[in-house]
Amino acid sequence: MNRISQPDFGTPAVSGARSVNVVIDGVALSVPAGTSVMRAAREAGIDIPKLCATDNLEAFGSCRLCLVEIDGRSGTPASCTTPVSEGMQVHTQTPLVAKLRRNVMELYISDHPLDCLTCSANGDCELQDMAGAVGLREVRYGYEGENHLDLPADTSNPYFTYDPSKCIVCSRCVRACADVQGTFALTIEGRGFESRVAAGQSESFLDSECVSCGACVQACPTATLNEKSVIEIGTPERSVTTTCAYCGVGCSFRAEVRGEQVVRMVPAKDGQANHGHSCVKGRFAWGYATHRERVLKPMIRKRTDDPWHEVSWEEAIAYTASEFRRIQEKHGRLALGGIASSRCTNEETFLVQKLVRAGFGNNNVDTCARVCHSPTGYGLKTTFGASAGTQDFDSVEHADVIMVIGANPTDGHPVFASRMKQRLRQGAKLIVIDPRRIDLVRSAHIEADFHLALRPGTNVAMLTAMAHVIVRENLVDMSFVRERCEADAFSAWAEFVSQPENAPEAVEKICGVAAADIVGAARLFATGGNGAIYYGLGVTEHSQGTTAVMAIANLAMATGNIGRAGVGVNPLRGQNNVQGAGDMGSFPHELPGYRHVSDEVVRSSFDAMWGVKLDDAPGLRIPNMLDAAISGRFKGIYIQGEDIVQSDPNTRHVAEAFAAMECVVVHDLFLNETANYAHVFLPGSTFLEKNGTFTNAERRIQRVRKVMTPRNGHEDWQITQMLARALGYEMNYGHASEIMDEIAALTPSFAGVSFARLDELGSIQWPCNEAMPVGTPVMHSSGFVRGRGRFMITAYVPTEERTGPRFPLLLTTGRILSQYNVGVQTRRTANVVWHNEDMLEIHPHDAEQRGISERDWVRLTSREGETSLRAHVTDRVAPGVVYTTFHVPDTQANVVTTEYSDWATNCPEYKVTAVQVSLSNGQSEWQRAHDDVVRTHARLEEVPGE
Ligand code: SF4
Ligand code: SF4
Ligand code: SF4
Ligand code: FES
């Protein structure tokens, strides 16, 4: 059997301690003080049998299999719980410990089914291995005594089973759930022989609070907790290390494969972003890659009400190129544009913007970061000089006060949330600024010190009021400000925030939060030690998104919380490669590396490498492209990996724009909402089918490695290359690594990046260049990238979206753990058991006023449109606020969102819409009609070969 399991040192590594010399079975070595005897032995190449120990959990000492003898000590201590000491002489293989271990194994085996040959874990079972390792030859107690062999299995979870007949009660699962994941869903119930693992209050796994992260399955040494895919497909044969394609945490996984079939995704222990942990999406929700609805052959149609017909790749590319040429000849060079994807690799994104700039001859390229984190780029570049978060995730281990604003990490960034929760359980303080009571506010062993449940749209007022307190109470870190920041800008800012209208006592009426709480939170942040700020789309997706990012940067600078571990300003990026899409020059005004297209020197380096003369004028942003389409100036678009019709605000307006274009090319995995308006459909490849890199929220560039042959025939960058060539612009890459070499040659912050270097180092956080050859975990450590930090004035300007008698409630939106973005991938997995419809959260008071009960159909109406969905009555939202997710196209929450957007970047104001909610009889008329439209537009002339 080809074992592909990751090495296990038994107990966690100890770092930073002085070295201790020990001798184990005659092998002398030095290890850090505090290291367990078990781990030291493993480092000396000696495996001590173990069952309850594993190296991502603190030692527990329950199985008694790891006994050793130590000179000068009586008895046989457990090696997992015994730390090394200077001069220690350890013996791991003596007749005494061998006999004791065999006795222990006999007891385990006497209550364990002996179906190894047919067990799904055969060959991948630590119990089986240990029976061999201790030389078990007989079981003197027989198998006839009292046992647990008939206990029924729990198969309720869609991805894994729990078969208690195989449980050895080692408690690894319970500890993984508590210590690694932080959910505390599991306990050991009963005593002595009756002990067994229980989920929740003796519920099924599905009904318990289990969030299906898989940590317990990973930890289980037997087949008790086992992936259903392993049971169905069999033990994997090989593994390929790659990066999750869902959120911006960027978890590293080992894709374990049998033939061309993925058996399971196992989080990589050496993953530098996730350290061996995962969430339900990356761990289990990869089945969309082989979903029957995936389109694998190119399709074209002359008109969008014609049926699709399948064509060869050659025909699809030639047709697209001829249409694009026709459009430019008739309507001019600027009538075309392209959308790069934050879900695709850096290399693919780089090629899309290159195709637009060099092939189309304009700068009309944009990306979905427009609708999420563009204010982060603008705000942090203005204040600090770099459009990115300042820290690595490990930094949170050194934070004393954690401030979370407009983010819901346990749903949106779950693996990082688990790290954050570990730090909070160790005693770090927590401030949550969010209109909704997110899970972090109160969960197992965690309670926020302050939850400032502000009215949606008032972030800037709140953050400025906190700054007011910090200045008023002389809590500014003046030595940091004097040394690191622009003096004049600081003085102007301090004067501005000190004005009476920015005092908490004035702002409490705007935000709906008591002044005392604002004061308390500000004092805690300024005086509580290392203060780290984490924020999300609840900050950026506002008409003052950029202002709020700047206000956050101001707070960090004023309190000296920049430039070292444990502090910083950290945007939690939504999509897997939204950082990379920005880095790669996907915005219409910036070339790769965030350099303005008007910069003559920068542009000439691209001109020389690309053999063209680039346009020096910024191109159109997504909203401008849509407006230009409606006014007849913009006629063709190439969209790679984005569903603009579903994800952008004011769906009606977006649909009208697409309907006005002459050639819409959608390059994606599935016929999405935008494909309803497409003339060409180019099938995309999944992350399992391609080589490349993603850049996560910590600026960490990680490899994406091809696990299987692309089912559509090509990696996505190859498809863009074919299109460029058909348009007459030559591209000749033979491998994604060659694209990265070009990126490195053209982009100073990527100068030291290559696939070879990534393979060597595991990952690299940019900037990576001669000065920082292994990358930069913490930015601005000795000075800001822009020289001195720049405080910005952050006057609060209320959004123009106002509540009133017709629309008295404020709608805000967000994500849920089991689903991802517009749900294209996750809705095609078993994750729908947790969420198959978007629901409207409404406070009991508002629900009662409207006669609304739990799960009633309600109509959600705004000035822009209406949709219907079911109600969830909950006090998680404050009175006056309603909340929904946007994962399901049947609901299309964006039908009601407005066209208001951030003043600096046009990022839509998704988080504030004035609405009314009333009882309804079911779906709205357009929703029923929409189902018909989808059926018509998805119609094929022939049934595809799938
Ligand atoms: S899957 Fe995760 S949350 Fe669920 S019981 Fe296991 S460790 Fe806990
Ligand atoms: S389910 Fe697995 S990890 Fe949990 S106690 Fe049983 S054998 Fe140990
Ligand atoms: S936390 Fe994000 S990157 Fe990690 S497994 Fe989950 S979805 Fe993937
Ligand atoms: S591995 Fe040490 S007691 Fe179980």
Describe the structure.
It is a single chain. The chain is an alpha/beta fold. The protein contains 29 helices and 36 strands. The protein has a seven-stranded mixed β-sheet, covered by helices on one side. The chain has a six-stranded mixed barrel with strand order 31-35-32-34-33-36. The longest helix is centred in the middle third of the chain and has 19 residues, at 313-331. The chain is globular, with a radius of gyration of 29 Å. Mean pLDDT is 91; it is low at 935-946. FE2/S2 (inorganic) cluster (FES) is lined by residues 50-53, 61-66, 78, 80.
Summed up, what is this model?
This protein is an alpha/beta fold. The strands form ten sheets. The chain has a seven-stranded mixed beta sheet with strand order 13-12-27-26-25-14-15, with helices on one face. The chain has a six-stranded mixed barrel with strand order 31-35-32-34-33-36. Strands 20-17-16-21-22 form a five-stranded parallel beta sheet. The radius of gyration is 29 Å and the shape is globular.
